[in-house]
Amino acid sequence: MKRSLYTLLLIGTLGVSLHSCTSQLEEDARSSIPVKNFFTNEEECNSAVIGIYNYIKAPYNKYGYDEIPYAMLELPTGLFDNKAQWQFASDYSNLKFDASSPDFSIWWESCYKGIEAANSCLRYIPAVKMPEGKKNELLAEASFLRAYFYFQLVHIFGDVPLKMEPTANPADALIGKSSVRDIFEKAIVPDLKFAEQQPLPATTQGNGRVSVMAVKTLLAKTYLSMAGLLKEQIFYGLAKSKALEVIQSNKHKLFESDQELTWFNKLNNPAFDNKEEHILMANYAINNANSSLPVYFLPKEVKLVNALQFGGFAPSSFFLDAYDPADLRGRNNQGFFMNAIQIGDKKYEFPWAVYKFMDPGILTTAPNSAKNFPLLRYADLLLVYSEAQNEADGSPDQAAFAAVNLIRKRAGLADISKLSQSEFREEVLKQRYFELCAEGKIWFDLVRTKKIFDTKAKKMVDLIGFKLPGGTIFKEDNLKFPIPSREVQINPLLK
Length: 495
Known about the structure:
Layout: H1 5-8, H2 11-14, H3 42-57, E1 80-82, H4 87-93, H5 102-124, H6 132-156, H7 180-196, H8 212-229, H9 234-249, H10 263-267, E2 278-282, H11 293-297, E3 313-315, H12 317-322, E4 337-343, E5 346-354, H13 361-364, E6 373-377, H14 378-393, H15 398-410, H16 421-436, H17 442-449, E7 451-454, E8 459-462, H18 485-490
Antiparallel strand pairs: 1-3, 2-6, 4-5, 7-8
Helix pairs in contact: 3-5, 3-6, 5-6, 6-7, 7-8, 8-9, 8-14, 8-17, 9-14, 14-15, 14-16
């Protein structure tokens, strides 16, 4: 059953918690009482904040057959070939964005459900008696998560409704769009600045909850996006400074190979989730949730024991060939891709597939996985710093070279040095493709930089006017996904 924003924003009045990984509605313990009456003690407040995290995961889970909202951020980049037998996936590859797509609705709904839940927490928790430190920590988490959802919305839909209070009556839900600038300046940045000053733990401490370093990382990424989307140079300096705070804290580091495991095995291993390189993840082990993302990347040619085959897309041959021959990330079973895997005494062979999120257990047990999905990781932060420093100061400094070289060295590549500003910019943006592909980050880069990686020419080029492998030419209008048609039908202010 689908719900419009109008319906979603009645949560505060109806007291219904809308949580779903399959776009169905489920009620929790709050469904029989008004939301404001739920916040009576520390335990209930903590449960309410934990509930906000659920809304992060919905876009990364499959529904129906071959369908997953996450794919709409990857297929338009030209890096992947569509393998899904599903019309909307084919449309994404050709930049045909139909407002009736359920994927747009799932992104929209999950973000606004999360925002409404955060609004309720921020409205009612301050009046609850509990230790001030714990109260401020919960408020910081809710603020961060609200900022995170708005960060997703502006990069996916552009101008969207700005709602900072829980819904008190139905009329509150019928609101128009606010500009991207207003969303950044009135919601995302203030929320993150508030959260940054509260007593959050330095890292996730293994529990997957928001940390100070996660706040600083998202704030750095926010400033970098503001520099591009608002076209204001000052934000590069702010992004540089904030990213540098994370680097100099020494709280996170890249995974490195040792005698037991390669760095990639650690990146891909659930035992290393919420540690070291992972600053923030969508956690599936919490509340016995399961991710269907790993099976989405497994080619249909692989026969699963307890499920149908689903493989949705595969890396294009041009993208695979664009990796330097020495780059471990492009090698079979050593990096981000694979065409075979050994499980016990059995070898599975298939067309090239994304190995980044592979959970071998799905081959022999069940299709769902407790493997977490990376939302913020240290490699991304290093590249944010490098890009921001280069743009803020007019040329790369030694710290920026060092940050990029950490990533290159781990991938088996030689260090770089003595590059001009434009040469370094090219290198950083290309490394974002090679390092962060299939993580839902590249679309956001397209939106903020209006540059795209030409996999055939192996260089960055202007996005507008670029011809995708399927022949479709990128236009300015393609940089925003349409607001779901049902939302517009119910609320004409969204037109």
